[in-house]
Amino acid sequence: MEKETIKILTENFESIGKKTDDGLEFWLARDLQHLLGYDEWRNFQNVISRAKTACEISRQAVSDHFVDVNKMIEMPKGAQKEIGDIMLTRYAAYLIAQNGDSKKEAVAFAQTYFAVQTRKFEIIEQRILESERVQARKKLAQTEKELSGVIFEQTGDNRNFAFIRSKGDKALFNRTTQEMKVRWGIKETKPLADFMPTILLKAKDFATEITIFNAKDKNMRTENEISNEHVTNNLTIRKTLQSRGITPENLSPEEDVKKVERKIKSEDRKILKKIQK
Fold first, then answer.
1. Does an H or E element contain 79, and which?
2. Neighbours of 68 (CB within 10 A)
């Protein structure tokens, strides 16, 4: 396929993409029909039918990706006619391309086009999730630092902070910090929190925030009071998670968050260099 053809097809496919008021990207089946080189709607409906079957096989809800709509078209002498159409998600458009006649040049292009676009979306989504986890880890570190300060201010000594945090881990995971490190295959010198999924980082942060609030509000003056408060809060968070089908110790560990942060910074530097060129 020649470069000029690829350029024209790219422009054509991008021109028919639309967005809803909520910013969701979609394509209309009748627009896609003509771009893929299908003259008859009934022939293209066969392709759509195969795509819907593929969608079901992949355990996706067809109604989430193929939405029936009506639209008005211009007829001769200024008349209008309402016809049926289908709003397609990127995934639906990809499935249609995959089930089209690959001997058609436009179909062959579309198979690659939508696959690449889907991959771009996946990369962006993954980047957002990784950034969210990095921020959640930083937030937990800040909150724990604040708790350490509260312990010092109200008890005169914060040497027991690590002990209190460890008790919190035991309450949340029903296992000691060391037992969880062994369970997750983490080196003894590495912080357990660096390998926690985002939901557990946020859960620990919330429990710690409650401890800080109550330690101040109730003017707790001993390590034992604050320790018991922290255990209670982590037990409460554990029960909440379990009530929603989430058992903390049964979740899988994530990649070391420090490595993730370094990767994000490295990618940012590469992007910045490209922009500056």
1. none
2. 10
Three-class SS of 250-268:
HCCCCCCHHHHHHHHHHHH
Residues whose CB falls within 8 Å of the CB of residue 242, separated by 6 or more in sequence, listed in order: none
Which tokens sit at 103? 């001997």
The predicted-structure confidence for 186-231, as pLDDT tens digits, reads as follows 999 999 999 999 999 999 999 999 999 999 999 999 989 999 999 9
State the Cα–Cα distance between residues 155 and 104, nearest whole angstrom: 76
The residues, ordered by sequence, that sit 6+ positions from 66 with a Cβ below 8 Å of its Cβ are 48, 51, 52, 55, 86, 87, 88, 92
Q: Which two tokens stand for residue 118?
A: 């889907």
What is the model's pTM?
0.65
d(CA 4, CA 45): 30
Sign of CA dihedral 72, 77, 78, 79: negative
What was the pLDDT predicted at 2? 58
